[in-house]
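User: Modeling request: complex.
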Amino acid sequence: MNNQRALLDYTLHLADDALIIGHRLSEWCGHGPILEQDIAITNTALDHLGRARSLYQYAAAIFNGMPAEEKKDCFTSIAIQNIVSNGEQIDEDDLAYLRDGWDFRNTQLAEQPNNDWAYTITRSFFYDVSNFYFFTALQKSNDETLAAIAEKSLKEITYHVRWSSEWMIRLGDGTEESKERLQTAVNDLWMFTGELVKMNEAERVMLAAGTGVDLEAIKPLWQQQIATIFSEANIDTPPTAWMQEGGKEGRHTEHLGYILAELQFMQRAYPNMEW
Amino acid sequence: MSQDKVNKNEWPLWEVFIRSKAGLDHKHAGSLHAADEQMAIENARDVYTRRMEGVSIWVVESKYIHASDPDESASLYDPANDKIYRHPTFYNLPDEVKYM
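Assistant: Request completed. Predicted assembly structure:
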């Protein structure tokens, strides 16, 4: 894998994670447990979508700068292939709305359904903690665009991790029911956390190039922080078991398809529509 | 609403005060529900400062706000209406004093 292709995959993975978790959180809009938390969670959803936009814009620029031959191998999506064969450039919207599920590189954790408040909080918590260490490190990237996006995002992510950590403690240390629901969510989502701190090929190429973040170095920090909050929340760490993986290579759980069906419907049914 | 009618499942109400920029006073912005003071500040951040309205937040649980009784307005405030001499408007300022 050459550096250009690895940079595209790397940037898209970050963008897709942001879009998909942002979309999941936005599903709470109008359904939050109380008005104030409804606003809090949709604010956070918008933070993720904002980061997704910056990253998609960069990914589109990387893609447009690639040789025509290489472009053909990047996405299976017919809609994107058509744009390329017409000699046109793609933009951030094309990447979000016209790629198919197997072209998405988000972690499987991000696409897991909201289920209840405890699942939603747990998913955000696992993701926010990894995001915090990841974007802290990404600020030192030799890629100026990624470093700048990291610096801007880190302020938002610092708040996200504070918010979801406090909710973990509140639910775990709350009532019998809230503790039970939280422990169930932690047990069910645990197998999707391996991917957060396990490197794939694109990430190894980017690390070697001085662009990417060393997930091996983040892994112990992530585990330590998770353990700290688990202990405050009186939550048991699930036994280390087999971990799911493959999201970063485009292998997804059944949930992503439904998200994309909802997210992409308008652009697929009415190409180039604006509103 | 008397205290025993308060819905036990509802979080307490908090009054929110926002300082819009350094040097200005905190102003009452509104109220919101939260489980504790930490959450009240975060909710206030999310509800009242998302359009750059503030640089500092105070929250006070609403039950700790004590207010004057509107029914007593006549005796409390009307007497000030005809005490114009309490305003410092009866001095002749020398021209040399500027910016008053």
